Task: inverse folding
């Protein structure tokens, strides 16, 4: 059965078309990633699925319930870990978990056991009686995740689970999420703008750009759809058009020019073989090269391929 | 049922946070004490003007200070809603089965209960200064009920504004805008008989004055229970109206998400 079905969601905020017909499906038990730069519409999609936001058009089903018409049933079935956590900072970790469990109508004794269990799982047992004010960023994020799991949901939404964490905390959070998915037999939908995170965590992912899903598949499938290597050539001067013509000539057609205005990216069957030819041709024409690199397909190449835009530039721009 | 239970849980959270920083309770009592102890002494001869129903200005003033305090604290009670919205506390609970109404009601009830507790303390200090509540225990209950209703009526309004504008500065500006006019258009500090005619007419429509008249009515001898009951009734009706307003603005806020 499918845990999440999203069909043609549209949502507009003023001048911004946050969702523009987003469509994807998440089977039960999967960790599914929505990958895209800041402002791509990932969080809006999640907010529609957790019933916070009403879409302008389209349909969404979560855990077998219509997310637009059966909000109450959806809310009981899901856990939501928002981007900005919303914990009560003046309360302790345990008190936050208690309040969360109570609004789900959990029995006192069951709730106490569940809280102890979750505190153990996320490694906050020792900090449980301290107020959240004194928690580190990583601890706060682990508490957020525990809050989303108190009532044993079937589907968990993680909106940017590691944004703002240092690299070490991020890696330990990845381990945490992977372990939880297995232990609690959860379906997880997570959004991220970290390519490594999507690569590392998601069984399958959808690449989101400007409110649309532009590609969907396992990280390996998406990468293998791009044959060959990407050759990045950074020119020492701005003769981009000349260089482009030369590269076309040596059968290294230029896929795009990066936003810095002097880096060209070509996709070739074998980067190692093509590189000397490319450099020789540029040097013959007297175009100086500042740097070159050959890259195996990565998710940012996938993004570039499907949107024609550079991921890092888009992420900064939004 | 679910609404009442969730409201109770949310109030529990706020009460706990308040008790965790008890310094707040002291800070919140400084202002009414200044009015009672300093202002009350400064103007103690004002009763010679007549029409106060007593020669003791502090007896005249104390029940009104309970009302004024309830009104002042209510006028900025929306701040904690703005804070909870900014901190995304409200959003987190909107994605749970928590009753929507409880998120608004708990703010109003918390505010009103705080006013009642402060009211008790103000009355105890007043009693120590020799103020006698003529109607006895029933009088104390009426005064605290007035404090709860005046506070709830204005807290509902403040919550509603907070949900519409979602900015601390606007909530404070509005509080400043309404508090002094409504204070001076009431008989809180001066007998109704000493007010200019036009102010006396306006004060009949001032909910703060409804509260002052009801609470003062049970402190001074010759309580007119019909008038006390009527003023309590007006305040209750107004509380229902502003709570409904707050609930409606909560829906507006939700639609904006």
Result:
């Amino acid at each position: 059965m499918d845990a999440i079905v999203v069909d043609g969601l549209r949502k507009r905020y003023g001048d911004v078309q946050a969702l523009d017909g987003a469509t994807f499906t998440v089977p039960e038990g999967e960790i599914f990633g929505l990958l895209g730069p800041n402002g791509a519409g990932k969080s809006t999609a999640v907010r529609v699925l957790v019933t916070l936001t009403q879409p302008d058009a389209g349909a969404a089903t979560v855990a077998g319930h219509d997310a637009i018409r059966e909000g109450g049933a959806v809310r009981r079935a899901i856990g939501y870990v928002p981007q900005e956590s919303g914990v009560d900072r003046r309360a302790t970790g345990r008190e936050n978990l208690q309040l969360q469990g109570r609004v789900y109508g959990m029995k006192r004794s069951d709730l106490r056991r569940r809280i102890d269990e979750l505190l153990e799982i996320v490694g906050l047992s020792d900090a449980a009686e301290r107020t959240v004010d004194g928690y580190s960023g990583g601890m706060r994020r682990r508490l957020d995740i525990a809050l989303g799991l108190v009532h044993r949901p079937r589907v968990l939404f993680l909106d940017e689970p590691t944004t703002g964490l240092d690299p070490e905390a991020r890696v330990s959070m990845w381990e945490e999420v992977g372990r939880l998915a297995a232990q609690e037999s959860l379906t997880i939908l997570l959004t991220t703008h970290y390519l490594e995170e999507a690569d590392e965590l998601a069984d399958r992912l959808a690449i989101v750009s400007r409110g649309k899903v532009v590609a969907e598949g396992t990280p390996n499938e998406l990468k293998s759809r791009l044959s060959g290597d990407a050759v990045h050539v950074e020119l020492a001067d701005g003769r981009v058009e000349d260089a482009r013509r030369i590269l076309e000539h040596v059968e290294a057609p230029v896929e795009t020019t990066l936003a810095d205005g002097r880096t060209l990216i070509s996709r070739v069957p074998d980067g190692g073989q093509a590189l000397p030819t490319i450099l020789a041709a540029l040097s013959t024409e007297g175009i100086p090269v500042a740097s070159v690199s050959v890259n195996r397909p990565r998710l940012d190449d996938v993004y570039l391929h499907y949107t024609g835009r550079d991921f890092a530039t888009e992420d900064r721009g939004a | 049922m679910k609404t009442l239970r969730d409201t109770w849980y949310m109030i529990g959270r706020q009460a706990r946070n308040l008790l965790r920083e008890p310094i707040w309770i002291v800070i919140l009592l400084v202002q009414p004490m200044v009015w009672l102890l300093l202002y009350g002494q400064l103007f103690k001869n004002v009763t010679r003007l007549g029409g106060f129903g007593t020669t003791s200005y502090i007896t005249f003033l104390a029940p009104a200070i309970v009302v004024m305090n309830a009104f002042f604290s209510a006028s900025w009670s929306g701040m904690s809603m703005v804070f909870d919205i900014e901190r995304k506390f409200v959003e987190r609970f909107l994605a749970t089965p928590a009753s929507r109404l409880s998120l608004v009601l708990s703010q109003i009830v918390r505010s009103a209960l705080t006013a009642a507790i402060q009211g008790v303390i103000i009355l105890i200090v007043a009693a120590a200064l020799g103020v006698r509540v003529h109607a006895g225990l029933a009088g104390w209950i009426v005064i605290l009920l007035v404090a709860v209703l005046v506070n709830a009526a204005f807290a509902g309004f403040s919550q509603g504004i907070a949900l519409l504008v979602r900015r601390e500065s606007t909530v404070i500006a509005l509080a400043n805008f309404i508090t002094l006019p409504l204070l001076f258009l009431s008989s809180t500090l001066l007998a109704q008989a000493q007010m200019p005619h036009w102010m006396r007419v306006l004060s009949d429509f001032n909910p703060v004055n409804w509260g002052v008249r009801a609470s003062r009515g049970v402190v001074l001898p010759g309580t007119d229970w019909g008038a006390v009951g009527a003023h309590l009734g007006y305040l209750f009706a107004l509380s229902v109206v502003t709570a409904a307003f707050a609930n409606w603005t909560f829906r507006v806020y939700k639609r904006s998400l």
Observations:
- Chain B is about 80% helix and 0% strand.
- Chain B has a mean pLDDT of 93.
